[in-house]
Amino acid sequence: MTPKAAENMPNKVTSSTEQVQDKDLPLVRTNVTIFIFLHATTLLGIYLGVTQPTWQGWVLAVVSVFLSCLGTTAGAHRLWSHKAYKAKLPLRIFLMLLFSLAGQNDIYEWSRDHRVHHKFSETNADPHDINRGLFFAHMGWLMRRKHPNVIKKGKTVDCSDLLEDPVVRFQRRFYVPLAFLCGFIIPTMIPVLGWGERLWFAFVTNGVARYVVSLHLTWLINSVAHWRGNKPYNRFLTAVESANITWWALGEGFHNFHHSFPNHYAASEYGWKHNFTTMFIDWMAKLGQAYDLKTVPDEVIEKTRLKTGDGTTTFGPSIEEIAKKR
């Protein structure tokens, strides 16, 4: 389970929340210890996976990483955080189980933090504010206590709709056993029972290493997709079009588009291009499991591009690259 950025612990900070600096926010030592263990074990798992590989193990690892990411992108992100589409009960249960496999805290907490991120993006009320550095936006925000403004401003974001879903309530209530069952016990026991893998080997490879890899693929959106790239829709945002990572992130790298039009179910105007999450939602729609897919009219996208874009395109050269060629 992803360590939580402590929010209810007393913070020894200055009286003015606007003047709080990183040095004023203590490390959450439990989270730091957990991350050290997870990453050390992951290095061992990758070494074993390379030096003692089995084709079944690699197939399972790739599939389970993919499913972990899908639970985040199609589930916690586009379905629950943004309400970009609606899903019937079987699909919601399926996505809930995949998100439990991902182990990134329960749906309510993840969606709450993400809504706060969008509403207060690039301020000290943003849980993973890129202005505090690439590492902080990637994973460092989970190693320090939350800035007081994250808590203060976060209380103004309405998330009551999330708890109206019984699937969300169920997962929140039983998150810890679900996360251990879906994220570690089942991925470990499949190789053991399926092809006689050693228990500890299966745990460090398809249990821990798979988990940490999927975490970093998600964290790339918080960090790299707010770092360097094109801004064809809104040059005033830190969110960028990060074409280099969007395939690995199942379509979430079209981030300047997403922050410009957060309720668009496809998170991109390019349809299925580098966007498996959009493919999945479209397939579910054809099966009758997904419906009310929200979009933005093409003319609105074009007007936004002309008004606030930086003049580039998602897959074209950046402003800096264009300037160098002149």
Proportion of beta-strand residues: under 5%
Query: Which structural class should the secondary elements be placed in?
Result: mainly alpha
Helix content: 55-70%
Q: Radius of gyration, rounded?
A: 20 Å
* Tally of individual helices: 14
Which parts are unreliable, with pLDDT below 50 for 5 consecutive residues or more?
A: 5-17
The total of beta strands comes to 2
Overview of this structure, please?
This protein starts with 28 loop residues before the first helix and ends with a helix. It has 14 helices and 2 strands. It has 326 residues and is mostly helical. It folds into 2 domains: 21-216, no CATH class; 223-326, no CATH class. It has helices spanning 29-51, 55-81, 89-102, 107-119, 134-138, 148-154, 166-173, 175-195, 199-222, 243-246, 255-260, 276-286, 298-308, 319-325; strands spanning 86-87, 290-291. The chain has a two-stranded antiparallel ribbon with strand order 1-2.
Short description:
It is a multi-pass membrane protein. With 326 residues, this protein is mostly helical.
